[in-house]
Structure formats: structure tokens, C-alpha cells
Specification:
The chain is mostly beta strands. It has no helices and eleven strands.
Length: 115
């Protein structure tokens, strides 16, 4: 059974940091690119960051470049999103995505940036 389980969300003040984790199981994690998406209330889901299967290449949405870092540990079947200098506009539910044809999604974790 395929599972993507996100964790690490929460409430943080502007300028703060959070690290999201996504633990994968049920498929050959190390062979697939992985991504983080987010969806804010009333908005469409958007790609935040993507990392190749080896971790050798990453790309980011313009809105998070220089503040967010995606990484992975293939030995632990886990992908991470380090989020620094958080802004209120980063408030959203964050989803992990990956697998063949990027068909697998996690349940999401809420990130709220507010003072």
C-alpha cells in the first residue's frame, strides 16, 4: 500500500522557520522525483519545489527561491522542505507528491504564518 505521510506543519510567526517531512512507503522511492505543492484557501494548488530521484537537481517556484530548500534521504525514504523567512502568504496546506507519473499524494499538512 502506497503512503506519503507529511509532518512538521504548524503555526509560526513571520520570519520564522519550519521543516516539513514526507515519509514514503509502498513504492521504490529512490527512483522517482519528488515534489512539494501547496494550496491556499480559495487558490489553486501550486508547485513549490521539486527534486530529482538522486537529489542532484532541484527547482523552485519564484515565490520561494532563496527561502525554501528541498532535500531527500533515499535511505530513509523521506523528502524534506526547509522553509525559512516565512511570510503570511506562505500560509497553505502543503502536500507531498511523487511516484510513477507523479500519481501519489499525501494528505497534507497545514502551515500557518501569522503574528
Amino acid at each position: 500500500q502506497v503512503q506519503l505521510v507529511e509532518s512538521g506543519g504548524g503555526l509560526v510567526q513571520p520570519g520564522g522557520s519550519l521543516r516539513l517531512s514526507c515519509a514514503a512507503s509502498g513504492f521504490t522511492f529512490r527512483t522517482y522525483a519528488m515534489s512539494w505543492y501547496r494550496q491556499a484557501p480559495g487558490k489553486e494548488r501550486e508547485l513549490v519545489a521539486r527534486i530529482t530521484s538522486s537529489g542532484g537537481s532541484t527547482n523552485y517556484a519564484d515565490s520561494v527561491k532563496g527561502r525554501f530548500t528541498i532535500s531527500r534521504d533515499n535511505a530513509k525514504n523521506t523528502v524534506y522542505l526547509q522553509m525559512n523567512s516565512l511570510k503570511p502568504e506562505d500560509t497553505a496546506v502543503y502536500f507531498c507528491n511523487g511516484g510513477p507519473l507523479s500519481r501519489y499524494w499525501g494528505q497534507g499538512t497545514q502551515v500557518t504564518v501569522s503574528s
